[in-house]
Amino acid sequence: MTLQVTDLRVYYRTLAGDVRALDGVTFDLADGEIMGLAGESGCGKSTLGNSLVRIDGRMKYVAGTVRLDGLELPIADMDRMDEFRFKDISIIPQYAMSALNPTRKIGRMVADLLESRGVRFGEMRTELERRLLLVGLTEAVLDRYPIELSGGMKQRMVMVLSTLLNPSLLIADEITSALDVTSQRAVAETLVEFRARGFVKGMIVITHDVSILYQVADTLTIMYAGKLAEKAPTSVIMQKALHPYTDLLISSLPEVGVRFDERRLSGIPGTPPSLLNPPPGCRFRDRCPLAFEKCAEEPPFVEVAPDHSVACWKVA
Amino acid sequence: MLQLDGVSKVYRVGAFGGTGLTAVRDVSFTVRAGEVVSLIGESGSGKSTIGKMILRLIGVTSGSITFDGTDIARLDGDSLRAYYRSVQGVFQDPFSSYNPVFKVDHIFDLLRGTYFRDAGDADWRRKVEESLESVMLDPAQILHKYPHQLSGGQLQRLLVARALLLDTRFLVADEIISMLDASTRIDVLNLLGDLKGRGLGILFITHDLSLGNYISEKTVILSRGRIVEMGATGRVYGNPLHPYTRALMGSVPQLHRKWSEVEADLAAKGANVAGRCIYHAQHGTDGGPVAPDGVATGLVEAEADHFVGCFRPYLEGAC
Amino acid sequence: MSHQTPTDRGVPPGGSPVTALTGAVAPHEAPVPRTAPGRLPSETVGRRREILYFALHGRKVLVSVAILLVLLVIAVVGPILRPGDPNAFVGPLGAPPSADYWFGTTTFGQDVFAQFASGLTATFLVGLTGGGLAALIGMTVGFVAGYRGGVLDEILNMITNVVLVIPTLALLLVVTAYLSARGLFVEAIFIGLTSWPWAARAIRAQTFSLKTREFVDLARMSGASSLRVIFREIAPNMSSYLFLTFILLFGGSILIAASLDFIGLGPTDGTSLGLMMYNAVAWSALQLGMWWWFIPPGLGITAIVGALYVMNVGLDEIFNPRLREA
Q1: Of B93, B250, C238, C263, which residue is least crowded by CB atoms under 10 Å?
Q2: Residue C30 pLDDT exceeds 50
Q3: Which of A76, A72, A159, A151 minimizes the C-alpha distance to A110?
Q4: Contacts of residue A42 in chain C, CB cutoff 8 Å?
Q5: For residues A153 and A312, what is the distance between their CA atoms, to the nearest angstrom?
Q6: Do B97 and B73 touch, CB atoms closer than 8 A?
Q7: Strands B87-90 vs B70-71: parallel, antiparallel or unpaired
Q8: In percent, how much of chain B has pLDDT > 70?
Q9: Are B202 and B171 spatial neighbours (Cβ–Cβ below 8 Å)?
C-alpha cells in the first residue's frame, strides 16, 4: 500500500470561522495505482492534494493520519515535511507551469531546486536528459527561458522535474486544464508512461475533467463538499456508479455522439452547501433525488464491494 | 442571416505597426436562423477574433461580414445601435464580463440607457424579471448582488438573459461554458439549444469537440486562422477528412472510449484519404487563393455539405 | 443614528470571508455561501449612501478630513481675525508667540499667524489649480491614449515622453526668472502644465488593461459611446486610483511651489507657506532660534500632504467592495 489516508481533516481559517474544506477523508492508494480525483470547484480536491504535501499558514490541520509506504508523515509540521517533499512525495500544483520564474533559464532553475534538496545537479544531469528525451524534449530546453516553451512543453518539463528523484507518490493538480487538447493527451499519457517506468509508485491525478481520468486512471474518487462520495475502479464508476452524485455528474457530461436534439442531458440543480457551517448529515441531501429521512444522519464511507466504497444510505 | 465572406484579420505589431500578425485568413461561412454553428479551434486559432469581428468590437482587415444583407463595417451611431439590438454576445469569463464595482443589475441598466429610455420603472422591472425567469433564474436571488456573490453559472445565464431583453436574433457564444462546473455547464448549453428552438442563430465558439457535437447543426474547424474543415456536424464528426481534424478527434478525451480505440477507428475510416490532399486532388496544381505563407485558403466540397481545405502544413507532401 | 439604511452590510455571520476564501481556492466558481440580507432596489442612491456610510465610519478618512478641515478653517477665518496685509509690519520685532500674536512675529514685526493663514490659502490654491490642471491633462491624455490606442496613442505617448524628459525644475527656473511680475496662478499653471506626464502614463496603462476586460465589450454592445465607456465603466474601476493621482498631483504641486518659493522664485507679491520658509531661512530664523517662524509653515505643508495621503488609503478601502467585506 503506497498511501493510507485516515480521517483527514484540514480546515481553512477565515475571519468568520473555519471552512471545512476537507472534512474526514479516508482512502488507500495501492502500489502502482493512478487514482483520479474529481469533483466540482470548491469541493476540496485541491485541498486534499495540498494537505498531503504542504499545509500552509492559511490551512489548519485538525485530525487524521497519512502513511506513506507504511511510515506516518508529519503533515502538520511544515519543517519536518521538508525531508519528504520532492524526494518521497511530490506535487505539481495548479498553475505550476505559469509559476516558473521568467527570468531564469530552465536549467538554472532545475539546478537550484536540486541543490536546495541537497542533490548535486551534475549527478542527475544524465538521468534528467534521458527523461527529457522520453517526454519529447531535448536537453536544449535547459538553456531556454520558460517563455520560449509552449504550455505543453512547460508542463512536461515540470513533470520530469517533479519526478526526478523517483518519489513514491506524485500529486498532479489540474495539469491538463490549461492546455490544448493535443497537448492534454501528451501530458496525460506521460503520466501513464512514468508509472510504467517506475519513476513513481502511485499517483493522484486531480482534475475537474472526468473524461481525462477515464483515459489514464485506474480508480476514480469523487469528492463532494469536503468529503469523499465514492471510490471505485474507473470502469465501475463509468458503468455502474452507486452514489447519486457520481451518477448525475457523469450523466451530465456531453460525449461525442450525444446530440441535444436527440437526447437532452441535464445538470444537477442547486449549489453545494457552504463549508463554513455545513449542514449535518449527507451534504448532497438538498440536491439529491433519492434523499430520505435517514440522510439527516451522516452516511459513512464504506466498502460495498471489493475496492468500491460509497458514502450513501441508499446504497450501504 | 449572417455571412462571412473572405474575412481576414491582420494585427499590427511592433512600433508604428511595422509588422503584421495574421490572426484570421480568408474565412467564409454562413449561419442561418434557428441554427447553431460551432466554431472549433485551439488557442491561437483565431476563433475568438472571429467572434469579436462579428460583434464589431474589432475591425475586419479584408473581406466582409454581412447581417441580413447589410455590411456591418458600414454601421455607425444609430445603425450600430440597431445592429446590437439584434446581435449580441456572451463571453468566456463570467467574472470579467461584469464591472466589479457595480451590482449585476448594471448590465441591464446599460441597456435601458440606450434602448429602453421610455420604459417606466415598474415596466422595466417586470421586463428584467421575465427575462431572468426565461433563463431559469430567480430574480429575488440574483438582482442587487455584486458579481462576486454569484456563481459562474448564474452569471453566464444572466448574460444570456441580458441578450434576450433585446430582440436578439443572433448570439455569439464565446467559450461560455468552459469556466463552469460540470453540473451547471450542461444547463447553460441546453439554454443555447432552447434559444435555437426559438429561432435564434448562434455561433458557438469552443475548443471542446464534444460540446460542439452536442449542440450544433454545423461545424467549422479552425486552425491557425483558416478553416480546414467545415460541414454538417454529423459529416464532420462521422467522417473527419482533414489531418488536423483527425488529430483533434484523436486527442479529445472521451468518456467511454479510450484514446487507442478512437485512434484505431479513425485510422479505419481514414484509409480512403490516407496521404492525399483532397483539396489539391480536386483543384489540380492551380490551388485557388493562397495566403502569403503559401498555404491555400480555399475549400472544396468533398461530399455533400462537407468541405475541406488543403492538408498543408499538417501532412507534408500530400499536395 | 441615521444609518438604518439597507446598506448595513458589515459582515453578517457566515458572511463573505468564505467567498474570499473559495475565491482563492478556485478563482472562477465561488459558490454562493448564503443569501445576503435583502436590500432595497434604489440602486444609485443605495450605493452613494453606502459610500457615505463607510466614509463616515473609516477612521483614516475621518482623521485626514478633520485635519484638512481645520487647516481650511484657519485659511478662511484667519484673514477675518487679522484683517489687512499679512506682510504689514504691525507688532514688536521677533516676538515669540503670545496672546496678541498667536504664532509670534518675524524679525520685522510681521504677524506670523496672519502670514500662515493667508499662506495656507495660497498653498491650497496652488495645489488645487496646479494639481487640478495636471490631473485634467493627465486623465484626458491617459484615457484617450489608452482607450483609443493606435496612431493617436503613439502621438500622445510621444508628447508625454517629451514633456516627461524636460527637466521641469530647470524649465520653471528659467521661465519664472524671465517673468518679472509673477502671480500665484502663473506659478500654479506652470506646475500643472509640466507635472502631468507620469499621471498620463499611469492612467494610460490602467485604461489599457481595463479596456481588454469583457465588461467593456459588453458596454459597447449595449450601445454605449466611447465617452460613456470611459467614464461609466473604466473610470469607476480606478476611482480610488484617480483620486490617488489627484492627491499626488495636488501634494506634488504644493511641494514644487514650496521649493520654488523657498529658492526665491515664488510669487513676487503675496504670501505662501514656501515663501514664509524662504524668508525664515533668509533671515536666519534657524540660527536665532525663532522656531515660531518656520515651524508653522513646515508643519502646515506636511499636514496637508500627509492628510491627503492618509485619506487616499482610507478611501481605497471604501471604494473597493471586496476590500470592505474582507
Answers
A1: C263
A2: no
A3: A159
A4: 22, 25-26, 29-31
A5: 42
A6: no
A7: unpaired
A8: 94
A9: yes
Q: B134 falls in which pLDDT band (50, 70, 90)?
A: confident
Is the separation of the CB atoms in B192 and B12 below 8 Å?
Answer: no
Residue-wise pLDDT for B226-285, tens only, equals 999 999 999 999 889 898 998 888 888 888 888 888 888 888 877 666 677 888 887 776
A3-256+265-310 belongs to which CATH class?
A: alpha beta
In this predicted structure, the answer to whether residue C13 has a pLDDT above a threshold of 70 is no
**DSSP secondary structure letter of residue C233:** I
Chains that touch A (3 or more CB pairs under 8 A): B, C
pLDDT band for position A33 (50/70/90)? very high
Q: How many residues does chain A have?
A: 316
Report the pLDDT averaged over residues B55-83: 93
* SS3 of chain B: helix, strand, coil, percent, to 5: 40, 25, 35
pLDDT digits (tens, 9 = 90+) for B7-54: 999 988 765 556 778 899 999 999 999 999 999 998 889 999 999 999
For the stretch B23-49, what's the b/e string if a residue is b when 16 or more beta carbons lie within 10 angstroms of its beta carbon? bbbbbbbebeebbbbbbbbbeebbbbb
Cα–Cα distance list, C147 to B18, C142, C153 (Å): 21, 8, 9
Looking at the domain that runs over B2-238, which CATH code has it been given?
3.40.50.300
pLDDT at A278 over 70: yes
**B143 in C contact zone (CB under 8 Å):** yes
SS3 state at B155: helix
Amino acid at B3: Q
Q: Which residue of C has its CA nearest to B95?
A: C28
The CATH superfamily holding the domain C50-84+102-325 is MetI-like (1.10.3720.10)
User: Mean of the per-residue pLDDT values for chain B?
Assistant: 88
- For the stretch C108-124, pLDDT in tens is 888 888 889 988 988 88
Those chains having 3 or more beta-carbon pairs within 8 angstroms of chain C are A, B
Residue B3 has pLDDT above 60, yes or no: yes
pTM equals 0.81
All structural domains of chain A with their residue ranges: 3-256+265-310
Q: Using alpha carbons only, what angle is made at residue B214 by residues B211 and B215, rounded to the nearest 5 degrees?
A: 95
Tell me which residue in B183, B189, B255 faces A214 most closely, judged by beta carbons.
B255
Q: Can you tell me the distance from the alpha carbon of A270 to that of A244, in angstroms, rounded to the nearest whole number? A: 14
For chain B, the domains span 2-238
Tell me whether residue C43 is exposed, middle or buried, using C-beta atoms within 10 angstroms of its C-beta: 0 to 12, 13 to 18, 19 or more: middle
Q: Quick check: B89 and C213 CB within 8 A?
A: no
Task: Find chain B residues with C-beta within 8 A of A184's C-beta.
Answer: 251, 253
Question: How far is residue C261's CA from residue C268's CA, in Å, rounded to a whole number?
Answer: 9
Strand partners, A221: A37, A231
pLDDT at A7: 94
Element (H, E) at B127: helix B121-134
CA-CA distance, B133 to B104, in Å (whole number)? 16
Distance CA B133, CA C168 (A): 60
Between CA A188 and CA A204 the distance in angstroms is 12
